[in-house]
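Input record (one chain):
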Amino acid sequence: MKILFAFSISFLSINLPVFSQETIIVTYIANEGFLVTSGDKKILFDGIFSNGSGKFYTPTAEALINERNAASPFDNIDILFNSHNHADHIDPNFILEHLGNNSNATLIAPRQSADDLSLADGFDTLQKRIRAIPRANHSRFDTTINDIGLEAYSFTHANGNTSVQNIGYIANLNGFTLFHSGDSDPEILDTFQLYSLSEKNIDLAFFHRGFFDAGDNSTGEQIINYLHPKAIIIMHIKIGDFEEYRQKVASYSGIPKVYFMEEQMGTLEFIRDGDSLKLKDDVNSTHRIKTDNNDFVVYPNPTNGFFIVSFGSFSKYKEVTIYSRDGRVIKSNKVENSSEMTIDLTSYPEGLYFIKITDNNSSCTKNIFYRKNL
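The corresponding structure, as predicted from the sequence alone:
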């Protein structure tokens, strides 16, 4: 039986407060998942899931454990946003775990996602903190939670998929206005115009890759220019396709600056500079993210069982640990004086695994997807 949810909304314009906070920090989780922090406020878009279908990054094993437990940096999140109920955007059980461990958080989600959550264990005790957005064409909803102004908009899912309820969000976080497209269809300019989104003075927009697929003068470019955000983060890029999209973005002319975030748990810190939004530490950034972790490479990814780990700048003494999707350690090796190693997963089930490299100074985790018949 489907559960009905109360969602207190205001259909009137709201006056969003402007605070003195001058920076906003964006942390890349995976796929369309981003943790956004400004001052003492935190929000999370589409960040708690574990199924990327072998095509998209999923949260690292460490990040997912911390998300579920509401541990740093996922503690004290004010609002969890979910755009739609696809498995590469939400895991109902893990979302409920987070809500159970974070009494501060409210989940904003489409009715479809809320119906899925109602079937999961623990829902009954948490449903008062789940705000379900009713399914309706061309509808918008406004509210304020923990002094964060938010607006939710109904958009057709990409490729004209009308069976999926997809929501795009605007959030005002300490005076910064953010837009997250979810999987909105980049071929339908009329909906964006219907909502008068060009009037929202968007600082930072999260657009999925489809907005950049058709090139100059496409509807995707028209939507980007209509919203005219001060900066863009591109998302929902398949594993291995980031270079392709760097080339696509480079072919566009006249659009705002586009940032790529590929290194998981890496961050970008933005600062307002007059009418511009710039990176705090480097206004001439070449679109590479900042990260405290060393980098390493795993390939091929996806793999048919055998893959290579190239250790990059890690020191000569390091430890390699392989985790299953549920966080169990299945392999662990200490490595000395080697720039790479080969790992064999053929005796394990197909699916998603996590590789963590640790030395005396730092650690870094990446995903790999194992499929026998590649």
